[in-house]
TrEMBL record:
Keyword Oxidoreductase among UniProt keywords: yes
PANTHER family assigned: BIFUNCTIONAL 3-DEHYDROQUINATE DEHYDRATASE_SHIKIMATE DEHYDROGENASE, CHLOROPLASTIC, SHIKIMATE DEHYDROGENASE
Enzyme Commission number(s) from the entry: 1.1.1.25
Pfam families according to UniProt: SDH_C (PF18317), Shikimate_dh_N (PF08501)
One of the GO biological process terms: chorismate biosynthetic process
InterPro entries, A to Z: Aminoacid_DH-like_N_sf, NAD(P)-bd_dom_sf, SDH_C, Shikimate_DH-bd_N, Shikimate_DH_fam
Location of the SDH C-terminal domain: 247-271
Protein name, entry field: Shikimate dehydrogenase
Superkingdom in the source lineage: Bacteria
Taxonomy of the source species: Bacteria, Bacillati, Actinomycetota, Actinomycetes, Actinomycetales
Gene designation per UniProt: aroE
Length: 282
């Protein structure tokens, strides 16, 4: 029977099985199986070689998003530019890699802003400089934001995050780098922002939340963390009536594109609503 899974390490916390099983149920894909497997970068080559003809796709999380690329036959141009693959689709003997994180972020940002009637697309501020930040860079540029500022520890003492900078060059995008550890630097960047995206892991932004208070009411905020759903940064924005997009929003929208890549089907509105309802209870 057809199967798919999510791989990475640690993987126990992953919500991907809940999301995809719900989408499959609504699509009537009875008998299809979606699992999760603990796979490290070191064990990845052996695991990839074990994929059989029944596999319809693999969702990929850290630390395998970069490590999987040399093991693929084809890499989608955007995923190649970002050096980050979160979806593997086997077709016959060929394995193709895609990045659906960019779509997930851009869709989450776009919907949160449109619901609030926001249309200004001047300055985007990205917090962090890892692989997720590179996807955020592609997302805000795809939405038409004209100026990008990146605030991260990696810019401390004039340093430049090599992988992030390479991704920006590959995308043909310029940005302004700022040291997160420099006093009030984040606050200064956010004061003129139209959108702020935090790509930091859970808890890493908490010490800097007070600096987000400089965000104008015309701005919106996305926190990619989905556990907890309401992070301290999200709570602060909600208190100030700043439109927010949750990490779980991004997670669901990127999964919708994975679902289409794996099945060839578009999830209908009832299925999407069911997924959000399900995640609200977990």
């Amino acid at each position: 029977m057809p199967w798919a899974c999510v791989i990475g390490s640690p993987i126990e916390h992953s919500l991907s099985p809940l999301i995809h099983r719900c989408l499959w149920d609504y699509a009537g894909l009875n008998g299809w199986t979606y699992l999760k497997h603990e796979v490290t970068a070191e064990s990845l080559p052996q695991w990839i070689s074990s994929i059989d003809d029944e596999c319809v796709g693999v969702s990929i999380t850290m630390p395998c998003k970069k490590a999987v690329i040399p093991l693929l036959d084809i890499v989608d141009p955007q995923a190649e530019a970002l050096n980050s693959v979160n979806t593997l689709i086997p077709t016959g003997s060929l394995k193709t890699g895609f990045n659906t994180d960019v779509y997930g972020m851009s869709r989450a940002i776009e919907l949160s802003r449109s619901r609030s009637g926001l249309d200004s697309r001047g300055r985007a501020v990205i917090i962090g400089s890892g692989a997720t930040a590179a996807s955020a860079l592609a997302a805000v540029v795809s939405l038409g934001f004209a100026e990008v500022h990146v605030v991260a520890r990696a810019f401390h003492n004039g340093k430049v995050p090599v992988d992030f900078h390479r991704a920006a060059l590959n995308l043909g995008v310029s940005y302004h780098g700022h040291d997160l550890m420099q006093r009030d630097e984040l606050s200064s960047c956010c004061s003129l922002a139209d959108v702020v995206v935090s790509t930091l892991p859970s808890g890493a932004l908490d010490a800097h939340v007070s600096q987000l208070a400089s965000m104008p009411k015309k701005a919106s905020f996305l926190d990619v963390c989905y556990a907890p759903r309401v992070t301290p940064a999200i709570a602060m924005c909600q208190e100030r009536s700043i439109p927010v997009a949750f990490g779980v929003d991004m997670l669901v929208y990127q999964a919708l594109m994975q679902f289409k890549l794996m099945t060839g089907l578009d999830a209908d509105d009832h299925a999407v609503s069911a997924v959000f309802d399900l995640l609200g209870k977990n």
